[in-house]
Amino acid sequence: MHSIPMNPAIDIDLLILALVQRGLQTPYDLRVRAGLSVGTTAPVLARLEQSGWIEADEAGVRRSRRFSITKTGAKNLESQWKNLPLKRSTAPDEILRIVYLANVLGNASTAARFAERASEDLAALGEMKRIEAQQHAGGSESANSPDWYLSMKLRSQAVEALSNARLLAEIAKELQPAKRKKKR
């Protein structure tokens, strides 16, 4: 049938599709149970509906519509999520969406490997930002220097990247026991 054009937001489309498949049927459900804003979900739901991947019932109380996944949507979700773990990303939200999709669609080991690789990439990015911050701080002894501001910003980015790297390493470890339990 229809297919969603590939674009940088495809992982959010597939995430929302998977969440609808798992019972989050309204924009309210997606906001309360998945932490996704209506501003994020409304255009994605419209795009998924237009593409024939989900369908909605008639508007009910307070103009609320319940969405459900179609056979076409389920087929496309199953086939298209598999390309996502091949991406290299340092965007934490994108990484978490891909880890979630890989895990809930039945492949904890793929999710764990992707989280491990993303953790390594973020750790490398954090180290690069730390070194860059040191280089900018070296020539500026004054807090009034523009280099000092850049150094602080780079230090902040380094800390954020390293913190996210640690979180992803923990997530990868959490997913490993799930993999072993399934083999038994």
Q: How do you describe this structure in short?
A:
Helices cover 68% and strands 3% of the residues. The chain has 184 residues and is mainly alpha-helical.
What does this structure look like?
Helix 1 (10-21) crosses helix 3 (38-50) and helix 1 runs parallel beside helix 5 (92-104). The protein folds into two domains: 10-86, Winged helix-like DNA-binding domain superfamily/Winged helix DNA-binding domain (Arc Repressor Mutant, subunit A, Orthogonal Bundle); 104-183. The chain contains seven helices and two strands, in the order H-H-H-E-E-H-H-H-H. Mean pLDDT is 86; it is low at 4-8. The chain has 184 residues and is mainly alpha-helical. The two termini are 39 Å apart.
Give the topology.
Blueprint: H1 10-21, H2 27-34, H3 38-50, E1 54-56, E2 67-69, H4 71-80, H5 92-104, H6 108-138, H7 146-183
Antiparallel strand pairs: 1-2
What attributes characterize this protein structure?
about 180 residues; mainly alpha; Arc Repressor Mutant, subunit A; two-stranded antiparallel sheet; 2 strands; about 70% helix; elongated
Strands, total number:
2
**What Rg, in angstroms, do the CA atoms define?**
20 Å
Question: What kind of assembly state do the chains in view correspond to?
Answer: single chain
Count of discrete alpha- or pi-helical segments spanning 4 or more residues: 7
The largest sheet is: 2 strands, antiparallel
What is the distance, rounded to the nearest whole angstrom, between the alpha carbons of the first and last residues?
39 Å
Major sheet strand order: 1-2
Quote the average pLDDT.
86
Morphology: elongated
Query: What pattern of helices and strands is seen along the backbone?
Result: HHHEEHHHH
Q: Into which percent range does the helicity of residues fall?
A: 55-70%
**Could you name the ranges where pLDDT drops below 50 across 5 or more consecutive residues?**
4-8
Note the beta-strand portion. under 5%
Q: Number of domains in the coordinates?
A: 2
Which class of secondary structure composition applies to the elements?
mainly alpha
